[in-house]
Each structure stands twice: as structure tokens, then as C-alpha cells.
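Onboarding guide, step 5: your first structure request.
Type a short instruction followed by the sequence, for example:

Predict the 3D structure of this protein.
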Amino acid sequence: MLNLNELKQKPIIKYPLFWEYKIILQKDENARIVVEKILLQREFKLSESNSSKEGKYKSYLLKVLVNDESDRLCIFELLKKHSKFVL
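The system replies with C-alpha cells like these:
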């Protein structure tokens, strides 16, 4: 039998670890510059993922070492402020 309370628990994540964010920017924005402004001197890996059908947007996969949950969420919030979408 499935215990529904177990489904509501937060996942256990062991930090530090490399976290992946999917960011979507307008095609004319330089993703590297946007990410460098947010992460400052932190190392990261950025790779282009897809373009929208109309070519208005580009998506990227960003990998960065996060130290804890608050660090991970802080990066997510900063990315949201500078990107069209963040996953």
C-alpha cells in the first residue's frame, strides 16, 4: 500500500553538488554575459540547448556547483530576474 504522506516529503539532496538549470533567453541576449553577472567568479558550464520555432528564444543548460539549498534557490531567483524562463 502506498503511503500518501511519503509523497509530500521533500527530496533528500546531498550538498555540495552540481545543479542543472535550464534557462531561456531572447535570441539576441548573450547567455554567457548574463550568467557571469549572476555567478560572478563561480565556475560554471553553459551549453546551448534549443531555439524556438520562430527563433525568438534560445535555451541553455547551465551547470554550477551549489553548496546548499539556499545557494541553489538564490541562484534560481537571480536567473529568474534575468531570463525569460528558468527550469
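Each response can be followed by summary notes, for example: The chain has a mean pLDDT of 89.
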